[in-house]
Design goal:
5-stranded antiparallel β-sheet
């Protein structure tokens, strides 16, 4: 699938901001299943300093400093990206989950060590005995990894209610587990904590999800949203993405921005401001499917 993605974030401050520094992760990450054709990030007021780089995890990142006094900040990101569906998988034919950590721990390769770092707690995914017990209901002895991981994904979707008012970015994962409700970020952190409680490497993925309006209705502009899901490492298939919010293996309707240990590693917009007082934030996202190149040729 080919998409045009537009992401607009507006900050309105009750008092002037004299100077601000920001880190942006708003450019989709090129990876095995995704090709980035074009991208742009525009900022108003215009930054005095701006540079593009890669972070520790290899994600595209933009650093900027705004030295002009302002009471409103607008960040607009646009991209055109192709997303391919992953190859078919047979979860029942994957390695028993108990063997994964030992396999990586014995690996002398840099790739093995790089994968192993995702098997441990991170600030947003601290495992508890309760989370480990919840995970083990899916991870029975000798069960194939992907079969067990998808069962856990399905159970989180079944047992937890989507509720945008129940949590915020600072809500600990054990509180989400107690409440049995939250949003996509919470469910991703919850599944990561469960997997890492069993020493299984898994990473947090941020991006966008194509949403479809009800039959007969047009999709509202700005109605799409930022999204979060997880990837679990499987020896037979590499990193496999799962979406606990929507109870599915990730297909070609998810656009990947970045990945890391948890949200704190890869928040789309982060920064420090001097002044500003109180502020409100407005976010609008559009993910628009485009004709594939062969379809455009047929129309011509």
């Amino acid at each position: 699938m080919r998409y045009d993605v537009r992401h607009r974030t507006t900050y309105r401050y009750s008092q002037p901001v004299s100077i601000s520094h920001h880190v942006l992760r708003l450019t989709p990450r090129p990876c095995d299943h995704q090709v980035l054709h074009a991208s742009s990030v525009t900022v108003t007021p215009q930054p005095a300093v701006r540079s593009d780089a890669r972070d520790y995890f290899g994600n595209p990142v933009t650093y900027l400093t705004i030295q002009e006094q302002h009471e409103q900040l607008v960040i607009e990101a646009g991209s055109r990206v192709d997303v391919a569906a992953p190859p078919p998988r047979e979860p029942s034919r994957t390695m028993p989950w108990e063997r994964i950590f030992g396999l990586l721990a014995r690996s002398p390769s840099p790739d093995g060590l790089a994968t192993l770092q995702f098997a441990f707690d991170s600030p947003y995914t601290v495992a508890t005995a309760g989370l480990a017990a919840y995970a083990r209901e899916s991870f029975l002895p000798d069960r194939p990894l992907l079969e067990a991981a998808y069962d856990l994904t399905r159970r989180i979707h079944r047992d937890f209610r989507y509720d945008s008012t129940a949590t915020d970015v600072s809500t600990p994962v054990d509180e989400v587990f107690r409440l049995r409700r939250g949003v996509c970020q919470d469910f991703a952190h919850l599944e990561l904590a469960c997997l890492r409680a069993l020493a299984l490497p898994a990473r947090y993925v941020s991006g966008y999800l194509l949403t479809r309006p009800p039959p007969g209705q047009q999709k509202l502009v700005g109605s799409d949203a930022s999204h979060a899901w997880i990837s679990v490492w499987c020896p037979e298939a590499g990193w496999v993405d799962l979406d606990p919010t929507n109870d599915r293996f990730v297909h070609d309707e998810h656009v990947t921005l970045a990945w890391g240990r948890d949200y704190g590693d890869i928040s789309p917009i982060n920064g420090v401001i001097f002044g500003g007082g109180e502020h409100v934030v407005e976010v609008a996202v559009d993910v628009s499917p485009l004709p594939q190149p062969d379809e455009e040729q047929q129309r011509a």
